[in-house]
Specification:
Radius of gyration: 17 Å
Distance between the termini: 37 Å
Strand order of the largest sheet: 5-4-7-8
Helix content: under 10%
Number of strands: 9
Order of helices and strands: EEEEEEEEHE
Largest sheet: 4 strands, antiparallel
Structural class: mainly beta
Length: 121
């Protein structure tokens, strides 16, 4: 993970802007027999658990390739938000994983080789 930090110093004021670049979740989607699932829809969304009304925002979405591989951009979600990674494909039950932005950074290697197993309906 690369981080770009810009500091702007003005007398009596310090402003720091932090922007994470290159944040991705990479992985594979497999069936119960370890066979890659091609064309599965992978979506990453976020919501604020403390908000008065539920508002879910899709950050990024993609499809798996012929080897079941996917790469999805995590964007720059607010630290207090909850992230949901959803995977679905006809003939399989939907899979949803829940995490937080801090976990993505702390356990970065895990999210670079993430395996998701889909159960058949």
């Amino acid at each position: 993970m690369r981080s770009l930090k810009i500091k702007i110093v003005i007398p009596f004021l310090l402003l720091q802007i932090s922007c994470q670049t290159g944040d991705f979740i990479r992985g594979r989607v497999l069936d119960p027999a370890n066979v890659p699932v091609e064309g599965a829809s992978v979506k990453l969304g976020s919501y604020d658990p403390k908000a008065r009304s539920f508002s879910f925002e899709i950050i990024s979405e993609t499809k798996t390739d012929e080897k079941g591989n996917f790469e999805i951009r995590t964007g720059d979600p607010k630290p207090e938000n909850v992230l949901l990674l959803g995977v679905e494909k006809d003939g399989f039950k939907m899979s949803v994983a829940k995490t937080h932005p801090a976990e993505l950074r702390k356990y970065s290697p895990v999210f670079q080789d993430y395996e998701i197993y889909l159960e058949r309906k």
